Structure formats: C-alpha cells, structure tokens
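Notes, Module 5: Reading structure tokens.

Key idea: the token line is not a picture. It is a compressed description, and you learn to read it the same way you learned to read a sequence, by spotting repeated patterns. We will look at two proteins. The first is printed below with its tokens.
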Amino acid sequence: MSDYQSRQSQFELFPSSRQDSALENDKKSGQLKNLTVAPENIIVVSIVLIITLIVIFSFGVEKGKRLALKNGGVEAGQTAELADETVIVQENLLNNPEVVPVEQHTEMAQPDVTEDKQEILRIPELEKQLENKNYTIQVASFKTKEYAKKEIEALEKKGFTASMVAKGDYVIVCVGRFEGKDEAKRFAERLKHQYNDYLVRRF
C-alpha cells in the first residue's frame, strides 16, 4: 500500500511532464499540416511563373529586334545613300520662309564624304530667279562654322531659309534673298522677336 501511495505521489509531483509531451506532439502534427500545400498556393505560384515567363519572352523579342536592326545596317546605309543623293539646294536661294522641297529638283549628285560642308547644286531655273535678288538679312555672326551651322539648323526648324557667308574672321548667318531693301525689311519683321540687331545688307 505504501508503494502504491509513493508512486501516486510521484506522479502527482510531476503531472506537467505528461502534458508537455502531449503539447509537443500536437505542435509537430500542426507543423506537418502547415507543410501541406493548399491548391490556392499552387495556383498563385503557377500564375507568377507564367507572368515571369511572359516578361522574359518579351525581353528576348526586344533584344532580337535590336540585333535585327544592327544586322540590317546595310539597308539603313542604302536609305542614307538615297537621302544623300537627293539635291541639297542652298537654303537662301528663294524668297520663301519655308525650306524648298527637295522633291521638286531631283537631280542626282555624288555626296562628298570628306568635306564637312553641304554640297550646293546649281540649278539653272533657280539661278535665273536669283539674278535680281540682291538683298539678304544678316541675323548673326560667329567665329566658327560649327556655331553658324547650328544657328542655320535652328532657323530651318522654324521654317526659314538660311545660309552662311564668310567675311573676314567671322561667319555670317543670313536669312532669305530679296529683290529690294524694302521687301527684306518687311520680311525682317518676322525675325524681330528672335534677333534684335538684324541687318539688311547686299548679298
């Protein structure tokens, strides 16, 4: 009887050890449940994978296009040659604020790659028209041709016809060709807001 009581008292002294082992078993089974994959998780993962594959594919397509453009440099070079073969008419040939359309004068010229200047093609019809146009509008002067060319490009973008004339150490940028001084002055009104110190002069 005393043995039974002593065993019972021992169990009563350490009742939590059984409870702890039961809790540990419950935790392990819960962790195993968490490790099981739900169908929703599979769907989400597959959607993410599909989107990733689509993005990678689109990047590959873009890279392929760029490579094709690089390899197609021959075609681009041919189009550049065709553009160079069109006539480059000096911008100040006509009394027109718009640039003369190149398509109107389709004579072929061989481009000079070594020279930095634009090649001027002399067309008899335009020369006849220019015989009486002796005035132009001087809008700016520069010490280098680079700055003069940039100014001419800016004027052309705005629709004006421009040219440069070397005078001493300076390169002068002029706009238009006009028969008379009055005609040039009237046209110069359009340039007032951009060039305050313009000058009407003989060409």
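Here is the second protein, with the sequence above and the tokens below, as before.
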Amino acid sequence: MTTGSMPRLPGKLHFVPRTRRGCWGPPQCLMIAYLESLDDEWTGHYDLAQRNCVHFSDWVARRLHLAALPDDLVGQAAEVMQTPVARLVLGTLHMVERLRGHATRL
C-alpha cells in the first residue's frame, strides 16, 4: 500500500464519500487569474494542523461562494496533532528544521 498524495479521478477515492461543492461558471482564464491572486493570502507558510491543503480547499470554496468543507474534515489535522505520537513526530520535525536553518512552521 502506498501513502502520501496521489492523483485520483473525481469520485474514485474509496474511503472518502464524494460531495459536490457546487458549480462556478466563469471561464478557465478567470479561474487561473483568481488562483494567481491568492499569493497575498496563501504564502509559503505551511502549518500542518492549522494551515494545510484542506484549509486551503475550504478557503477557496468559501471565496467562490460554494459549499464549505465539513467542519470535522477541516479540524481533523488539528485533532490528530494532539495525539502523543503526533507531538513526538512534530517535535522531531521542528528540530530537523532548526538544524537545517529553516524557520518554517510545520
């Protein structure tokens, strides 16, 4: 079994039910311009528990006036990060980042 991010066709994830976020009608070029305008709001800062890809997806859906992602999904990473194993792993990741000279927050 593989882990991590992998491409999947819509509706083909077996463990996540498909939910419709809604429809947005402007042309693709407007969507690309909109996404490029996100630079100010979504910089390179990444926080595994509070500012991850799920938070980004929820933010985009809300900005496009589509249905927000379910709260339990959006809060899942923060909940997992409270477990003892996750805190141990996160502490190790922070130490590695400090040793490498990066001040990023994981």
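Summary for the second protein:
- The chain has five helices and no strands.
- Helices lie at 28-36, 53-63, 71-74, 76-80, 84-100.
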